[in-house]
Specification:
homodimer; Rossmann fold; 12 strands; DNA-binding; elongated; six-stranded mixed β-sheet; 341 residues; alpha/beta; 434 Repressor (Amino-terminal Domain)
DNA sequence: TATTTTCACTAAATCGGTTTAGTTATTGAT
DNA sequence: ATCAATAACTAAACCGATTTAGTGAAAATA
């Protein structure tokens, strides 16, 4: 069973390549190809399992039916889950997804964007390192379809889909305050990224709304690359201080899970000695000891919004408006704050 | 800044497209293009940020520098982690990865394979549903480069990378036996898949090696799609039987975590009443209550082996031997079996 | 000096499709 | 009977690269 090309069909049926191409692209009727001929072509194609070469097709149409997905790390549960949704939705519309991880390296991200563009992707989805103003500006200037998610450039006018990081963190912090905790620490990352910055604001404002002045020594910003080691110091510092905290807000799921490991190692009772909450979660947060209260991100909605906006941009002929999307997080109360359930 | 094509460079420098192409593909010397001309071309290309259109390139070379990755589900932590390794290693060699999830649907998997082939991927990596004999045979017949992983077709002679599912399950079961447990249940999936079948064998043989005859009523095979509901019945049955089990082996990480949820709900003490072990793990298994003993898969090795075998096949001109790779799992002892640590 | 090699290139074919701009043959209107 | 319109196609250009087969001039060899 040799591979069959458009040319072969045309030759064998004594019609032109044009006719075959038109018919197989569903443009037979509008181009007045007779029903009989259409039938013959379609049957032949089906029988010989003809599949067009997408490279050739993409080359001549200037469209590849492919979208590029650039994320910090596919191994991270949040990104892998969003990627799953994006891929499924994209496939439903006939698009295939090229993906690459930037590992938080802006230079690499820049290269990835370029590499995706050479591959003639029809659009890009980027959870950016937020240090690639240049590439983003380039995409904007070229009016190339793209959507940012999870992290956007607040000073740039682009499409993006994010969750309300500010409000989410405010919610978990207020949850602690409502349960009577007052010395609340925050373990977060160096605030290079917009979501992280927003989470800090949410934490601060929650305290202020309870008339508590945030204390600088309760806020610890650690380096993402070295978080495994640094978190140990961070937790110890908050716990063993002369004015120890009675609760800790963790700004990411991996900070929370690693934080809990450290607390266990130090024999701190959660929630009796210290209550903890997490922004975002791992799927096992409900069965860890104790189950961790968290605000969870609407994974499915994020993925769906992203793909919807992008495909709209790709497929519509009229210029689409730029539309920021901010989704709500959901508070999932568990036992790590001492509330009886 | 307009986009620049090969033709533009040729025109502007008064050389032929051939010369430009050769030089930019590092074939200038072997084709005796003068150093001077080479310099000019390279400089011009760099200055104008020339990037070849990969579709055109792929079309004319019959090679796309792309590999296709087909997995059951990118959202599953195991597959997302292996995917991360595969993507990183592939990128290092200049390949980009197209991915799609089959969601255990053999028909969809078949379509995905076809779709990847139209897109002219240079090779395929598949964690198969194991129900696509046809497509696999087709790939074999065409001598198309591909590597299976996680799941292979035991009756077919193909390259694959798997872990020793048999020995891994034997190890965790023996661990329970060594700690004095004797009524050991197994909660697993309907054994359509090779790894799952192997895990059953490992469980059985472990018992036999301790002179215990496996009991049919201790082995519960549940439907993957409905595992959330079925596992509840399964656990209850094992626990509330007239001869209740004193330990349960879970054949996957998600069975184990869901199993633990159910045990907690039923107020069963782990490990006092029932010890549990899991094949494969979630990253939080060390902080759940109790921490779950598991055999873990060597994610990095799996990814590296897969990509190494595939790129070898793609890039070498001589026919490569077919090479099955079976990797070792590692027993991670935690507290869910009652052993004091 | 005549012939072969080598050097430094290039024209044109090719990859496998899509699309534009025609071309016949037939039908319908006047 | 004549001209315009329509039906049913097709030839050839094109997408943007790679690659094969050659070319003319200079240098080397006989």
């Amino acid at each position: 069973m040799k591979k069959v090309y458009l040319k072969d069909i045309a030759n064998d049926l004594n019609v032109s390549k044009t006719a075959v191409s038109l018919v197989l692209n569903d443009k037979g009727d509008e181009n007045k190809i007779s029903q009989d001929t259409q039938q013959r072509i379609i049957e032949y194609a089906k029988k010989h399992n003809y599949i067009p070469n997408q490279l050739a097709r993409g080359l001549s149409r200037g469209k590849s039916e492919t979208i590029g997905l650039i994320i910090p790390n596919i191994s991270d549960t949040f990104y892998s889950k969003v990627s799953g949704v994006i891929e499924r939705k994209a496939k439903e519309q006939g698009y295939t997804v090229l993906f690459s991880s930037s590992y938080e390296d802006p230079e690499k991200e820049g290269e990835l964007i370029q590499s995706m563009l050479n591959r003639q992707v029809d659009g890009l989805i980027i959870a950016s390192t937020q240090k690639n103003q240049k590439e983003i500006d380039f995409l904007k200037k070229e009016k190339f379809p793209f959507v940012l998610f999870d992290r956007h450039y607040p000073n740039k006018d682009t499409d993006y889909v994010v969750v309300d990081n500010y409000l989410g963190t405010k919610k978990i912090t207020e949850h602690l305050l409502n349960l009577g905790r007052e010395q609340i620490g925050l373990i977060t990352l160096k605030p290079a990224l917009e979501p992280i910055a927003q989470r800090l604001l949410g934490y601060n404002d929650a305290l202020k709304s309870f008339n508590i002045e945030p204390r600088k020594e309760y806020i610890i910003e650690i380096e993402r690359e070295a978080y495994l080691e640094e978190i140990e110091k961070a937790v110890s510092k908050l716990i063993l201080s002369s004015t120890p905290v009675d609760a800790i807000v963790f700004a990411t799921h991996y900070l929370a899970s690693q934080g809990l490991r450290v607390l266990k190692k130090l024999n701190i009772n959660v929630p009796q000695d210290v209550a903890i909450v997490s922004f975002d979660e791992l799927s096992a947060f409900d069965i860890v000891e104790p189950p961790i209260t968290a605000v969870i991100q609407p994974i499915k909605e994020i993925g769906c919004s992203v793909i919807e906006i992008l495909l709209n941009k790709i497929e519509s002929t009229v210029q689409q408006d730029i539309k920021p999307t901010v989704l709500k997080t959901k508070l999932e109360i568990r036992e790590s704050c001492g509330q009886l359930l």
